[in-house]
């Protein structure tokens, strides 16, 4: 079984200029739950002027907690610091995601901190989360390349990943923030990581900026990775990584896995309906080739 972490409502929508209503986001998330996804990153508790689309995190999470908490689905939320954590905790968030990068230039732009400073913040957050029994997932951005510093050495990824595991995260998601990775690099980086960490504790987070995401997922699967982040319809981007387009589309990943007989627990017609709903709200065509074909033909 392959685990897909759906990041459309957070990574997908955070870059959208059209501010969606909390109700529309909730409808989208409910439909994602209906489709069978078991882990859905729903929002982030960040500074509203930095990411205006996530300004309704409190209202959205409250609605999710009240109406969807009995569905056996995990709803992680991204938090950058203790302030974000405390808000999340007070609302009953049970899983958070913390984030840093392999590039100081990127973390400065993204969270106004160096990598080292980001670890000081994350340490406080993880300590509090441990006390509260809140699960913590870690992200490493710019793992393969940075919009400001260019190609990245695997040694940086290794060292940041090690520090995240030492803090106590249960899994590290390796982010190709600007979609520059290619399969040879992905394979060689994973080979280095798996000499140090159990492969089951690593996830891959590919953006599809240069059309390499699915190929990179295939390479990762062959290296033994079993968890991937993706976003419904291929929504996505990062406001602090210019030109970073969507995450790999969940539908495209589903098709690849399905073709190999790998189970995801997803009902593709329901997932397609969820994507169609949100794409209409943001008035954008899908980035997913599979979804486009499926909607045109009605066939897998
Ligand atoms: P800062 O300005 O340095 O923070 O921002 P500060 O501590 O100086 O505080 C400034 C103001 O922000 C204060 O308010 C704080 O209360 C407030 P004021 O007193 O001026 O009224 N503030 C907050 N408000 C709400 N929630 C908070 C919070 N913290 C402080 N948590 C900060 C630093 C990190 C907060 C800011 O830079 C920020 O929010 N950044 C968000 C960046 C972000 O969300 N980026 C996208 C997500 S990362 C990503 O997409 C990559 C990923 O997908 C993986 C990949 O693809 O690689 C995960
Ligand atoms: Mg991302």
Helices and strands in order:
Blueprint: E1 3-6, H1 8-12, H2 22-34, E2 39-40, E3 43-44, H3 57-68, E4 77-78, H4 82-91, E5 95-101, H5 104-111, H6 115-132, E6 135-141, E7 145-146, E8 150-151, H7 154-167, E9 171-176, H8 183-196, E10 202-206, H9 213-222, E11 227-230, H10 250-259, H11 268-282, H12 289-297
Parallel strand pairs: 1-2, 1-11, 3-4, 4-5, 5-6, 6-9, 9-10, 10-11
Antiparallel strand pairs: 7-8
This protein binds 3-hydroxy-3-methylglutaryl-coenzyme A and magnesium ion.
Residues 11, 175, 177, 205, 207, 238, 247 line the site of magnesium ion.
Count of beta strands: 11
Summed over residues and divided by their number, the pLDDT gives a mean of 96
Q: How far do the termini sit from each other?
A: 20 Å
Number of domains: 1
CATH architectural name: Alpha-Beta Barrel
The poorly predicted ranges are none
Fraction of residues in helix: 40-55%
CATH topology: TIM Barrel
Bound molecules: 3-hydroxy-3-methylglutaryl-coenzyme A, magnesium ion
Output the CATH class name: Alpha Beta
> For the CA atoms, what is the radius of gyration?
18 Å
Helical run tally = 12
CATH homologous superfamily heading? Aldolase class I
